[in-house]
Amino acid sequence: MKLKRNLIAIAPAIALLLGPASCQPGATATDNAETADLLHRPRTVVTTDGEIDDVDSFIRMLLYANEFQIEGLVYSSSQWHYKGDGAGTLFTSEMEMTRNIYGERTDLRWPGTQWMQGLIASYAAVYPNLQKHAEGYPHPDSLLAKIRVGNIDFEGEMERDTEGSEFIKALLLDDNPAPLYLQVWGGTNTIARALKSIDATYRGTDQWESLYRKVCEKAVIYAILDQDATYRKYIAPQWPDLKIYYNANQFWCFAYMWKHAVPQTWQHYLQGNFMRNEIVENHGPLLKDYYAYGDGQKQAGDPEHLHGIALDSFNRSRMGQAWGPFEPYDFISEGDSPAYLHLIDVGLGNLEHPEYGGWGGRLVHSDSLPNRWEDGPQASDFNPFRDSLDATFPQTRWIPAIQEDFAGRADWCVLGFEQANHPPRVWLEGAGSRSVAPGEVVTLTGQAEDPDGDALKYHWWVYREAGTYPVSPPLSGADSREVSLTIPLNLEPGQTLHLILEVHDQADHPMTRYRRVILTGQ
Fold this sequence. Notes:
Blueprint: H1 11-17, H2 29-39, E1 43-48, H3 52-63, E2 69-75, E3 91-92, H4 96-102, E4 104-105, H5 115-130, H6 140-144, E5 147-149, H7 163-173, E6 180-184, H8 189-202, H9 208-218, E7 219-224, H10 230-238, E8 243-247, H11 258-261, H12 272-280, H13 285-288, H14 311-316, H15 318-323, H16 338-341, E9 364-365, E10 372-374, E11 381-383, E12 388-390, H17 393-396, H18 399-412, E13 425-429, E14 433-436, E15 441-449, E16 456-462, E17 482-486, E18 496-505, E19 512-521
Parallel strand pairs: 1-2, 1-6, 2-5, 6-7, 7-8, 8-10, 14-19
Antiparallel strand pairs: 3-4, 9-10, 11-12, 13-15, 15-17, 16-18, 18-19
Helix pairs in contact: 1-2, 3-5, 7-8, 8-10, 12-18
């Protein structure tokens, strides 16, 4: 039987009646967890320079817009895209690569400030159908109302307040104490301007200390590379207690050079047959806007968007030779998608613990900067396809599940509830964090149910790199609901083992959800 949810209307009343750890009388723990998910979706702001991979990231994000609260959509600039001031002022990039490629410019590959509105219009066409499949999709008008233009004249421009920076400033200073995840798809300059405006207004006043703490406790920056110098030059030195999640390596499996990062075995999830048939075509106007190789589309304002042209020409180009070759409708790039994939609750518990690993990658705590989590060699996972540690694999390992989920949601744009697939609900019997003794035999039991009545497949595995014990102990019953293992005799007090329960349904596009168990030596 289909399990349909009608929680949004009663959620405010439930919130008043239930404490955060309470369970509504007559309801199961999973019912209350589901309600809590709807009540406590993470707040987020997207800042974007509008590159074609931002467009594709934005389209996928709209299909997941029920999973988080989109508080702001802000146009910003970067080292690759800026509008210019309209006065012919020449600008030279502070970033070495851009400076060497472009030299002095009055503007650079600027896609304009209307493309998000255009995509939201396409979202509006499929919005009624998306609502059939899940609660919480924002009304298109509410998304349009959250669009602002930030600091776009030049790379790194943060000298003046803009409607975008003022909008972010207001969110940082509002009375909602929930974390505000600031996604950086281009440069950090509009965010930097918002912070500088707070600084200029309040530093030296009796409010400064409390406001500084408030902003640092609330804001979490998720940055894909440094695409201007404003984080390094302003945010890090002036706001050292502000948290940043920094992804400079793992995003490549979703970026232009994905063929170099994704194992050959999984590349079909990004190749033309899958992308064209399962996502782009016959899935409504929003996905028809998605850029793919050789699709004939051309982004306005960017003369270097050549990906849609005849692929024999593209593959002979400098970019094609470095990244490809590619076939029609191959995936181009969604280099910014990890920033919001991190926010989707699929059961991995990674939102406030990026070191746990999840759909947005795995970032480890910096050795020298207490409020920075980053990737790189220190955050590598073992790649079984290469038989070695791989700095990209913490993100790459999730590609099959992420892409099948994307295809499933693409179906939500055009199919009714009965015809489409929906993810299973997964839970554990017992606590997700447990103290264990060396030599102890531990038995773990998972449960799941599928809203479509599909058969389910269970699989337990040890996420070795997420824990601190360096070896994966053998599991008994790894492909069943119940798994057991013997705790290694040399597990030291405080060392951890992370076990992941992975459940997917048996459908055309299987959807996967998880639960994590953390075993800590006592």
